[in-house]
Amino acid sequence: MPVKIRLQRHGKKGKPFYWIVAADARSKRDGKFLEKLGIYNPNTNPATIELDVEGSVKWLGNGAQPTETAKRLLSYKGALLKHHLQGGVAKGALTQEEADKKFEAWVTEKEKSVESKVANLDKAKADERAKAIEAEKAVNEAREKAAAEAEAAAQAEETASEEVVEEAASEEVVEEATSEEAATEEATEEKAE
Q1: Pick the CATH number of 3-94 from 3.40.50.700, 3.40.50.720, 3.30.1320.10, 3.40.50.2000
Q2: How far is CA 121 from CA 37, 46, 132, 144, in A?
Q3: Helices 53-61 and 68-77: crossing angle, nearest 10°?
Q4: CA 20 to 30 Å from 92, out of 2, 83, 146, 170?
Q5: Are 65 and 2 in contact (CB under 8 A)?
Q6: Please, are residues 44 and 70 in contact by the beta-carbon 8 Å criterion?
Q7: Handedness of CA 45, 50, 53, 57 (dihedral sign)
Q8: 64 CB burial (10 A radius; 0-12, 13-18, 19+)
Q9: What span, in angstroms and rounded, lies between the C-alpha atoms of 171 and 83?
Q10: Residue 34, φ and ψ in degrees, nearest 5
Q11: Is the peptide bond before 16 cis (omega within 30 degrees of 0)?
Q12: How many Å apart are CA 79 and CA 76, to the nearest integer?
């Protein structure tokens, strides 16, 4: 029975995640499998990959063939490297301790590169957020400035209308005063006659 290491799709429409499985090559994509080796979630940044390296190496040693995508994932997690080193141990090219040291060195270097990528993504996200906040502050300041100008214009218009009303009122007072004076003068003239 030919065995493939491949991806089995799960998740909802538009949000897939995958199980990495060892399955019979003749079985359906999402059908029966022999062993679940890990998960792959491409929706996160960076993608989440959890893999049973020992189980993958065991299946590779038994002759399982990975698909293209599964091969990339196995390579990313170091399963192919460990399988290669195990082949060297079997041939006598190096000892098990040397193979383990090389694998551990590779794993620590890979973890550092992934951590630096995550740090760069976090920094980029923080910078983007800071730029958004600055832009929002600028927009708010512009709105406040426009509101203050509109309020100042409204106050100027209001004071101008109050001055017009005061001038009209003062003219009425002057007219009333002059008419009262004229009336009092007429009354005094009538009394005098």
Answers
A1: 3.30.1320.10
A2: 28, 9, 16, 34
A3: 130
A4: 2
A5: yes
A6: no
A7: negative
A8: buried
A9: 106
A10: -90, -45
A11: no
A12: 8
For helices 53-61 and 79-91, the axis angle rounded to 10 degrees is: 50
pTM over 0.70: no
Displacement of CA 68 from its chain's centroid (Å): 30
User: Which two tokens mark 157?
Assistant: 């218009």
pLDDT tens-digit series, residues 34-71: 999 999 999 988 889 999 999 999 999 999 999 999 99
Q: What is the domain partition of the chain in residue ranges?
A: 3-94, 115-161
Q: What are phi and psi of 111, to 5 degrees?
A: -65, -40
- What is the Cα–Cα distance from 137 to 135, expressed in whole angstroms? 5
Rounded Cα distance, 6 and 20, in Å: 6
Token pair listed for 83: 């399988």
Beta bridge partners of 24: 3
3-state SS, residue 50: strand
Concatenated DSSP letters of 131-184? HHHHHHHHHHHHHHHHHHHHHHHHHHHHHHHHHHHHHHHHHHHHHHHHHHHHHH
Q: What is the DSSP letter of 47?
A: P
The answer to whether residues 73 and 48 touch, using CB atoms and an 8 Å cutoff, is: no
pLDDT tens for residues 79-99? 999 999 989 988 888 888 999
